[in-house]
Design a protein that fits this description.
The complex is a heterodimer of chains A (about 375) and B (about 425).
Chain A lengths: L6 H7 L4 H14 L6 H11 L4 E6 L5 H7 L10 H4 L1 E5 L7 H14 L4 E6 L2 E2 L8 E2 L2 E2 H10 L1 E7 H6 L12 E2 L10 E4 L6 H14 L12 H4 L3 H4 L3 H6 L9 H4 L18 H4 L41 H32 L5 H5 L2
Parallel strand pairs in A: 1-2, 1-3, 3-7, 7-9
Antiparallel strand pairs in A: 4-8, 5-6
Helix pairs in contact in A: 2-3, 3-9
Chain B lengths: L4 H11 L2 H9 L11 H6 L11 H11 L1 H8 L8 H13 L6 H5 L6 H14 L5 H13 L7 H15 L12 E3 L3 H5 L3 H13 L3 E3 L9 H5 L2 H18 L3 E4 L3 H15 L6 E4 H10 L13 E4 L2 H6 L4 H10 L29 H16 L5 E4 L2 H13 L5 E4 H7 L11
Parallel strand pairs in B: 1-2, 1-3, 3-4, 5-6, 6-7
Helix pairs in contact in B: 1-8, 4-5, 6-8, 10-12, 12-21, 14-15, 16-18
The chains are: A alpha/beta (about 375), B alpha/beta (about 425).
């Protein structure tokens, strides 16, 4: 295996100018809400950094996460991720196949033991011994456990790896779980989204290369710099929400005027992601700009949170039956307790004697 | 029955009804009722917070009527209400509450606190924890016919006096009269000018009225001590007399708790509707005024103010009537601060006046009335409750204040026009 060269050398080989590289570093610093001065630090660190070995494992997934990264508008900052890292194993992207591919993975794991980054997309099936997804005859669970041992850190790319995602949705026939459900002794960053924003993946890797540690995470293990605010907080349609102007159908006047999609089921208010600011497809837009509400894909269990077209304020599940039963039970209990109380009162009243003036004279 | 802790608790359990349960449930412990109570504002002692005065009743409600309370009681985790506790609460329930109802108006969640105090007194008297003074007054009311010990002979002497002074006949036991006048003890004993006053007013207005020799005493100590049994017995005398004389109306005297007993608690106490209607004397006078049957021909230039009796304003809503009447005779009338619905109690209602033990606290609470009076330049206080009048006089004397106190009906009678037009009597 070839000794990893520095990023600057690599970029030079590809004809990327130093100016373009500095612009990239400044953009990354801005995105992660770092002070402007850190752009220099990022540039210095990245240009000197040995490209780390990255092993990318794909489990129960749709390849959407990889597509998100590789099909992003070219040429972009995101594509540079492949210049920053040495992608030693990625079964969709690598040229090798069969035994050769698996051998590349084994060698990278041995050579960079304790230093490589492990990227995972897709969830891991546990049911029936994990037979629902295997690679080269090995279950995903087996492969993940083995690869996790030597990893410096793990990045769970996409909602499936981060929270279980679509395979985990009811009734979860394969017993799919997230990476964090299996690996507990390694730092894990969850880059959720279905798919996640490509520059978020790049940003996290750049942070790791620059500072040698993972960025600050929220309670769900997501980098705060990208998941700190909700779509709703940063949505360009927010002023209409504040004014109470809502589209009621997808083809009414409100929809044409670009009013808030809350009543059409937009999950923006409860969804933490950076879509509204970083946008998609080279800044072309994000779903709400296309006239469709946010479906909340970067939140756990988004697939089971009711219809995408039911307003947030409406109950997700069918509560009518539960409400009826509890109403009947509650009313029954109240009537029973009331009857007991009344009986107690009646008994006391029957045995009650009148107060007379003699009682006032007392003892 | 004999009074005991057991009968007291049993009475509490019996008294707790839907309203009380919902009041205790909805109390948000905001403490706003404290600032509405003159015993709290004048002492700043938190134990006089109105809702706190109900603590034993609240505990019984919790232990007997709530799910967790019952569970705690069964598990022996909650302390039952003890005799010592009731003894400790006796002064709070009787000495520091005049049943003025100001806290009920202040409560932001609409809890009728005074309703609960009235109900709690049922259990207090059943447990033997009622003040001696009030016990004595109630005993005299039942046995002698009046808490102040006046009887029919006293009344007859006063009537003779009034007839001599007015030259008119005071109708006694007239069957088929429209109105039956009821008096309060204090009116027979002390403020007896009222008899001559109503005689002259009714004569001028041509009102058909009478006094019943067997149902003239309106004061109801049973309500004050909190015994429905005794209150019903006292009230029954008036109801029977009214039914015997077949009157259409019974007139409540200028007496707060006589009015409450007759007008609001009455039918519930005796367990059936009245065959007559109850009207307060001030309501009747205002009605006569609006019909043009009440005429005055002179005014009193004195600076006057009006003390709203609690039961009249907060129970009966009579705010406009006394002011319209005063407008006829008092051109220099001024309001004191917090007039009408928010007026402060004289400090002696709800049986506090009959409770000697409460006197020092009552005089302290009078500071509130004093502050109200100091804020006006009035020299005469008009009221329409004989108990308020006594309490005002007492408070003024303790504070060396020079104000005069007069009753509204007497004041109107003093300025009655001379042209006698009515003939019926």
């Amino acid at each position: 295996m070839k000794e990893h060269e520095t990023l600057e050398q690599r970029l030079g080989e590809q004809g990327v100018s130093r100016r373009a590289f500095l612009k990239f570093c400044a953009a990354l610093a801005t995105m992660m809400a770092l002070p402007p001065s850190s752009a220099g630090a990022i540039a210095a660190a990245l240009s000197q950094a040995k490209r780390p070995s990255v092993i990318w494992l794909s489990f129960q997934e749709c390849t959407g996460c990889t597509e998100s990264l590789t099909r992003s508008h070219s040429p972009t900052l995101e594509s540079l991720i492949f210049d920053m890292i040495s992608l030693d194993y990625h079964h969709t992207l690598q040229a090798a196949s069969g035994h050769a591919a698996e051998q590349a993975r084994d060698e990278a794991m041995k050579a960079f033991y304790g230093k490589y980054l492990l990227l995972v997309d897709g969830s891991i099936p546990l049911k029936d011994g994990g037979v629902y997804s295997t690679i080269a005859g090995r279950t995903n669970l087996d492969m993940l456990e083995e690869a996790a041992k030597g990893a410096a850190a793990i990045v769970a790319v996409g909602s499936c790896a981060a929270f279980g995602g679509l395979p985990n949705a009811q009734p979860n026939p394969t017993g799919a779980v997230a990476v964090s459900d299996i690996v507990r002794d390694k730092p894990i960053v969850n880059i959720s989204g279905c798919p996640p924003i490509p520059s978020v993946i790049t940003g996290v890797l750049a942070h790791y290369l620059t500072f040698g540690e993972l960025p600050a995470l929220d309670e769900l293990g997501r980098p705060k710099a990208f998941y700190g605010e909700t779509i709703h907080d940063r949505c360009y349609r927010r002023p209409f929400y504040d004014q109470g102007k809502f589209a009621k159908t997808f083809d009414d006047e409100g929809a044409r005027n670009g009013w808030c999609l809350y009543e059409l089921g937009c999950k923006g208010p409860t969804t933490h992601n950076a879509c509204a600011t970083t946008k998609w497809n080279g800044g072309a837009g994000f779903p709400i700009e296309a006239g469709h509400g946010c479906i909340g894909c970067s939140e756990p269990k988004f697939w089971d949170a009711g219809s995408f077209y039911t307003p947030l304020s409406a109950p997700a599940a069918d509560v009518a039956a539960v409400a009826q039963v509890s109403m009947i039970a509650g009313a029954g209990a109240a009537v029973a307790m009331g009857a007991l109380d009344r009986a107690k009162k009646q008994k006391l009243q029957q045995s009650r004697e009148k107060l007379t003036v003699a009682d006032l004279k007392g003892d | 029955m004999s009074t005991s802790l057991q009968s007291g608790i049993a009475s509490f359990i019996g008294q707790i009804d839907g309203p009380i349960a919902s009041f205790f449930t909805s109390c948000v412990h905001c403490g706003l009722c404290a600032d509405s109570c003159l015993f709290y504002t004048e002492t700043q002692n938190p134990k006089y917070t109105p809702i706190y005065k109900l603590e034993p009743l609240r505990r019984v409600w919790q232990q007997e009527y709530t799910f967790w309370g019952k569970l705690m009681k069964k598990a022996g985790l909650s302390k039952p209400v003890s005799d010592e506790e009731l003894a400790e609460w006796e002064p709070l329930v009787y000495d520091s509450c005049t049943l003025c109802g100001r806290c009920s108006l202040a409560c932001p969640v609409g809890n009728d606190i005074v309703y609960m105090v009235r109900k709690m007194r049922e259990g207090m008297v059943a447990s033997g924890h009622a003040p001696e003074g009030l016990k004595g007054a109630t005993q005299r009311a039942i046995e002698l016919g009046s808490p102040m010990g006046v009887n029919i002979n006293t009344l007859r002497a006063q009537i003779k006096h009034a007839e001599k002074e007015t030259g008119l006949t005071v109708p006694m036991d007239v069957e088929g009269a429209d109105y039956m006048m009821v008096l309060s003890s204090a009116e027979v004993a002390e403020y007896n000018d009222i008899i001559g006053a109503v005689t002259r007013i009714f004569h001028q207005a041509g009102v058909s009225w009478t006094i019943a020799s067997d149902g003239f005493e309106g004061t109801n100590s049973g309500i004050q001590i909190g015994s429905s049994d005794l209150a019903a017995e006292l009230l029954g005398r008036i109801v029977r007399a009214a039914e015997r004389l077949k009157v259409k109306y019974v007139i409540s005297p200028e007496c707060g708790h006589a009015y409450t007993a007759l007008r609001w608690e009455g039918p519930n106490l005796i367990g059936r509707p009245y065959p007559f209607k109850v009207i307060h004397i001030i309501e009747l006078l205002d009605q006569l005024r609006s019909e043009g049957r009440l005429k005055t021909d002179s005014v009193d230039e004195t600076r006057m103010t009006f003390h709203d009796p609690c039961q009249m304003v907060r129970r009966g809503g009579m705010v406009e009537q006394p002011r319209k009447l005063l407008n006829m005779v008092a051109p220099n009338f001024v309001e004191m601060p917090d007039p009408g619905l928010q007026n402060w109690c004289c400090g002696g209602g709800g049986g506090v006046s009959a409770n000697e033990r409460a006197q020092p606290l009552r005089i302290k609470a009078f500071n509130r009335k004093k502050a109200q009076l100091d804020a006006t330049d009035a020299t005469t206080i008009v009221s329409a409750c004989s108990n308020c009048r006594t309490m005002l006089l007492d408070g003024l004397e303790h504070n060396h204040m020079p104000h005069e106190v007069v009753g509204l009906t007497e004041l109107i009678a003093e300025h009655l026009a001379d042209d006698k037009q009515g003939s019926a009597s």
